[in-house]
Amino acid sequence: MRVCLGQINTTPGDFDGNLEKILVGIDKASEAECDVIVFPELTIPGYLSQDLLYDPKYIEQNLISYERVVKYSARTFPGLHIVFGFIARNAGPGKPFFNMAAIAAEGRVVGCYKKQLVPFYDVFDEARYYEPGNELLILEIANKKVGIAICEDLWNDKGSQDYSYVDNPLSKYRDKGIEVMLTLNSSPYVHDKEWQRLNLISSRDSPVTVVYVNQCGGEDELIFDGHSFVMQGQRLLHMSTEVFKDTYDVVDLNGSDPLIPSIEDYRATIPFVSVFDLLVLSLKDYVIKSGFTQVVVASSGGVDSAVVCKLACKALGPKNVHAIRLPSIYSSKHAREDALMLHRNLGCWDYEVPIDHESSIAMLNERFSIYSEKENLVANVVETKRYNGVADENMQARLRDLYIMHFSNAYGAMPLSTGNKTESACGYYTHFDMNFSFAPIKDLYKFQVIDIAKQCSDIPSNIWKKPPSAELAEGQKDEESLLSYAILDPIVRAYVEDYVSTFDGFKLWAQRNQEQAISSDTQFLISWLFSENAENNFQRILSLIGRMEFKRRQTCPGTKVSKVAFGIGRRIPIVEKWTS
């Protein structure tokens, strides 16, 4: 059997664009005299259509494209089976739609399959829309007994009680003696996901060949990493590592030598797509699919804005990146020089617009003095209010936001936020400072941002070597207000991703994970765990994370690369009060 893996980048609602990619794949599979071509999940409408499904025109357009694919199958190489995803209406009881796969050949539909396991965790909310199916679909193709499944159908057991299902379609298919499993997938990237997929699907006991086709590209906060593969038992026959363009790889299931002899050798043998490349792809897709071609960034000379500038230049080309230096009286000379050197190295646009926040504060406070110092004749009260000096610091960030938004509005460049996950967790940014269009590093911890900077030769080393600072006051340093990032990053990760909420639990978590990249200095973290104020500081940070939910809720979307990211996958009420 010859199969073509149609790993494509789809967009919700782009019915013409998605259809064009499907037809290109069909032609390539036909030219290669394939027996099957498999596309990703919900190929026609695009994955994560969400409430667009409730628009009748959306479903109708999806069905029109479905009919066009079926009709086109009459023009292909004889025997070619086209496996693609679409949405069908549910005329019976239950949820209004089915997530389906169709198999078209020689101008007709030879089978349809309804997804049986509809996920309801993390970013997934398919149970809101789709009624699960309950029947297998087994066909004979090229003298092989073939089964069809859709994404979650293969993920019955994730090793967690929270996500287990009673039903197990893959096990049922194996019991029926199928030889080949064709699966359509829209599986978003999280750290180590590629290994999880292979480890889950490989089997010592089953000779079934699994053809796993995943989509690639960015969609809002999600990034799909492709990594489509063919697995025979524990033998990996094929793996796609291309994500920046659509691929239509052809694999002969009968005559292919394995890439690796067994699954245990995978990590050392097959190169993964880097997080940097996935962030580039996510940013590029978000900007281009949103109808923009250029972006604007506030560039401070710090590591976060430097990495965002680098990602933007890689994604869109340096001539489409506008980097604005916005120094105040507290901005150090080296920060201004570092930012300028960065822009020269990258080849992007450079501007300098000094921020005069003191005159703005003086004007406002003069106007507001009627409340803070004098009798208010209108309200008929006399009251003196204590002045919060932090407002003077935050004015600098707010003026920067204003200038960035003016540039965006005047010249049509999408504004990018530069905040990272650690800052977002602790609310360590001025309110509205992450309210632009997109935050490329929103789900990266501080040490991950620094690691990327270290690997980029055009980011001056002084940018990632110097102590992080917002430079909103004289001599200000981030770690003096919070904790060392070597400690803070793991606290945030343990609490947000693994729900570790006690200090004893965090101790165990840190010791158990010290071999992984959880900190910029793991030994320093381990020794800190036994210091005098460690538990009090741990509880202080958790309390801070809880209080900052209202700020995070108002931030813009950003690329999800971790198990749990701030955004649609983490649902915490803003107003809460626990009884102690």
Automatic annotation (TrEMBL):
Domain CN hydrolase: 1-272
Source organism phylogeny: Bacteria, Pseudomonadati, Pseudomonadota, Gammaproteobacteria, OMG group
Transmembrane spans: none
Family: In the C-terminal section; belongs to the NAD synthetase family.
Annotated pathway: Cofactor biosynthesis; NAD(+) biosynthesis; NAD(+) from deamido-NAD(+) (L-Gln route): step 1/1
PROSITE patterns: CN_HYDROLASE
SUPFAM superfamilies associated with the record: Adenine nucleotide alpha hydrolases-like (SSF52402), Carbon-nitrogen hydrolase (SSF56317)
InterPro entries (UniProt xref): C-N_Hydrolase, C-N_Hydrolase_sf, Gln-dep_NAD_synthase, NAD/GMP_synthase, NAD_synthase, Rossmann-like_a/b/a_fold
Binding-site positions, L-glutamine: Y121, S187, K193
Binding locations of ATP: A298, S299, S300, G301, G302, V303, D304, S305, T418
Role according to the record: Catalyzes the ATP-dependent amidation of deamido-NAD to form NAD. Uses L-glutamine as a nitrogen source.
Residue numbers annotated as active site: E41 (proton acceptor), K115 (for glutaminase activity), C151 (nucleophile)
Protein name, UniProt field: Glutamine-dependent NAD(+) synthetase
Keywords noted in UniProt: ATP-binding, Ligase, NAD, Nucleotide-binding
